[in-house]
Design a protein that fits this description.
about 325 residues, alpha+beta, 2 domains, four-stranded antiparallel sheet, three-stranded mixed sheet, 12 helices, 11 strands, binds cobalamin, binds iron/sulfur cluster
């Protein structure tokens, strides 16, 4: 029986690699009481800011079997989005975070995940499986840690010793029983580079990000009608969609591996956008230019709000010189 579980786990891992995932690991579908307490503490500290959707479906975060009672295994995959370009710094341009340079991962990863689900059906034709790529009440980083595809860095993202942290996570919950992996050790050691580099001190303690201070939250998740507070806008460092600073400084990202997905490369080679272009952009141009791009999430109004905050902060700085 144990041999079957190991053989089947191997088949699943080979299918994941064949589908293009650089990382794959398997965890047992079980309740996660310790992680849930940490999650609740994070919520009660108010670190989720206006993302109230995180307060819902908490029973599913406490025990993944509340999503699928017959679940036996949780397969976690990681897919690199790293490309070798960088951001040039210029006062008239806004930086876009690396994950958003190309096509939205929500568009690209589901087809690859289906390839793995096909193999699960071959193993057990009656099996049931559900997948998530940032699409439901599943704490993906916690499952990635449990499945051993990496450790949680002090900036709170998952890091792999083989490919660094520039990768997306996908999760498949399945009724197929498979041999599971163990978490790996934490390789952050005494390093605190990410905490020191964060311009808004959003990494309030190792492993804990206060989203209400994080540029990624303010430039992507905060609704366009909410103004960016001045203590944040004064530290935007030209970021207008997401923020990569804590990962840019992480020594483990020298091990990044270039993505095999052509659509993750920067559209038109652009990693920044001209601020004036955004301020004068019409809705039709925005819809056309950012079709199937993560930038759609913030809407044109959100992107313009970000640029306005940045310009305002630049003006304040000029006046003080
Ligand atoms: C909400 C959210 C955000 C929020 C909150 C960020 C955060 N740190 O959680 C905001 C909008 C700020 C955000 C930003 C980003 N995000 Co985001 N986000 C999510 C989302 C939807 C949920 C994450 C969540 O549940 N957070 C809640 C907190 C409580 O979770 P946590 O950080 O894991 O906190 C735990 C630790 O603090 C732990 N803990 C406490 N003490 C200790 C001590 C030790 C020793 C340890 C090990 C742990 C530990 O306990 C907590 C609870 O379990 C996930 C997708 C998903 N469904 O899971 C994507 C996800 C985490 N995001 C992702 C990405 C790519 C980003 C950005 C890099 C995008 C960008 N460039 O701008 C930034 C990174 C900012 C950062 N430093 O975290 C990826 C991360 C991939 C990876 N390799 O890890 C995910 C997994 C999406 C995906 N499917 O790929 N994000
Ligand atoms: S994404 Fe930027 S603002 Fe958020 S924790 Fe990392 S460095 Fe700080
Ligand atoms: S920068 Fe240093 S402390 Fe932060 S996640 Fe990377 S290794 Fe860990």
């Amino acid at each position: 029986m144990q041999v079957d579980l190991s053989l089947n786990a191997e088949r699943v891992k080979q299918a994941a690699k064949k589908a293009g995932f650089e990382l794959v690991g398997i965890a047992k579908a079980e309740s996660t009481p310790e992680e849930y307490i940490q999650f609740e503490e994070w919520l009660s500290a108010g670190y989720h800011a206006t993302m109230t959707y995180l307060e819902r479906n908490t029973e599913k975060r406490k025990d993944i079997r509340a999503i699928m009672p017959e679940a036996k295994s949780v397969i976690v995959v990681g897919r690199s989005y790293y490309t070798p370009q960088n951001h040039e710094h210029s006062d008239d341009r806004g930086k876009i975070s690396r994950y958003a340079w190309g096509t939205d991962y929500h568009e690209l990863l589901p087809d690859n995940i289906q390839e793995i689900i096909k193999v699960l059906h071959t193993i057990h034709p009656d099996s049931t499986s559900k997948w998530y790529v940032d699409t439901g009440p599943v704490s993906e980083k916690q499952w990635a840690r449990k499945a051993g595809i990496g450790w949680q860095g002090k900036h709170s993202n998952i890091i792999s010793r083989d490919i660094g942290s520039w990768f997306f996570i996908g999760v498949i919950i399945t009724s197929v029983e498979l041999a599971h992996d163990q978490p790996i050790q934490d390789y952050c050691g005494t390093c605190t580079a990410c905490m020191e580099a964060c311009p808004t001190a959003a990494i309030v303690e190792p492993y804990t990000v206060d989203a209400g201070k994080c540029l990624s939250y303010w430039t992507i998740e905060a609704k366009p009608e909410i103004s960016i507070p001045s203590e944040i806008s004064q530290n935007m460092d030209q970021w207008i969609f997401g923020c990569d600073i804590c990962q840019d400084v992480c020594p483990w990202n020298s091990f990044s591996k270039e993505t095999t997905i052509a659509e993750f490369h920067p559209r038109h080679g652009q990693t920044t956008l001209l601020l004036n272009d955004i301020m004068s952009m019409e809705q039709s141009e925005f819809s056309d230019r950012f079709r199937k791009s993560p930038l759609k999430r913030t809407k044109l109004a959100g992107l313009q709000r970000n640029v306005e905050a940045l310009l305002h902060a630049q003006k304040d700085t000029d006046e003080h010189i």
